[in-house]
Design goal:
278 residues; alpha/beta; Rossmann fold; 24% strand; eight-stranded mixed beta sheet
């Protein structure tokens, strides 16, 4: 990996949080699967397109893009070695030959100029410490007229089901874990539009979308997974065990409302953002 601008993110995603994501890739992919359809609907990837997946993680979106760009190429870039190892293994197992993965910090990664038709991201663009610099660098990697499409969460409170389901835990979530810092950086539409305009993009479009988020097979399974995620473990590290058990029971009870034949499904709210490189 070349130079790194987001040092804290590199440490976090190459440490325990990145390892947890790699080990639980199927669970995280199921959680984010509801984002895929609106993301790809906006991206409109053609079969010959050259696609860049920014913050590709364990490569679920990269592999889906590779099937759409069957006669093109897809490059996934991420800062996390553990997650990229999982991504490469999955792509090889699926027999995808038009996919490559690169470890790098997309804010400063030396992408070939004008090499891609479209850049996509299922949330990975949230974590930059300088978004204008990052999107400027990504923009340079796009050909003239190339497009950027990404998903990012709406502000807290925009998803009342999620607020209700995890209400018992909210008072204990006092701050983000190291890897989660930046997750709220692209929640404001005006801020998104300003960043992309400063980075040289035009025709910025920001659409609100409601998506299902699947947390587990049933309420008990969902609680086990949710309480094992990095942000929750970070915030509960010094909380008394008795308090944690009480909150787990309350969240488990709340999640029973959202049990469906397809699992515990709680509606979330995202932005789907698209923009064009002049």
């Amino acid at each position: 990996m070349q130079s790194i601008a987001n040092i804290q993110q590199a440490e976090a995603w190459n440490g325990p949080e990145g390892i947890h994501w790699a080990e639980q890739a199927d669970r995280y992919d199921a959680m984010g699967a509801g984002i895929n359809a609106p993301l790809f609907d906006a991206a409109r990837i053609g079969e010959r397109d050259r696609v860049l997946d920014v913050g590709c993680g364990t490569g679920c979106v990269t592999r889906l893009a590779a099937r759409r760009a069957a006669r093109g190429t897809v490059t996934g870039v991420d800062i996390s070695a553990p997650m990229l190892a999982r991504a490469r293994t999955a792509a090889e197992a699926e027999g995808l030959t038009n996919v490559t993965f690169e470890q790098g910090d997309a804010q400063v990664h030396p992408f070939p100029a004008g090499d891609f038709d479209i850049a996509i991201s299922r949330g990975g663009v949230m974590f930059f410490n300088d978004h204008v610099a990052a999107f400027t660098n990504i923009g340079r990697a796009l050909r003239p007229g190339g497009r950027l499409v990404f998903a990012a969460p709406q502000p807290g409170g925009s998803a009342p089901e999620h607020t209700r389901a995890f209400a018992a835990l909210t008072p204990l979530m006092r701050g983000p874990s190291p890897a989660a810092r930046g997750m709220g950086s692209l929640t404001d539409p005006a801020g998104i539009r300003h960043i992309l305009t400063e980075a040289g993009f035009v025709d910025v479009s920001i659409a609100p979308v409601e998506v299902p988020v699947v947390w587990g097979r049933d309420a008990s399974d969902a609680v086990e997974f949710y309480f094992a995620t990095g942000p929750v473990r970070h915030n509960l590290a010094e909380v008394p065990t008795a308090t944690i058990e009480r909150v787990r029971d309350e969240v488990r009870s709340a999640l029973r409302e959202f049990e469906t034949p397809a699992g515990v499904s709680v509606r979330g709210a995202i932005w789907v953002v698209s923009a064009t490189q002049p």
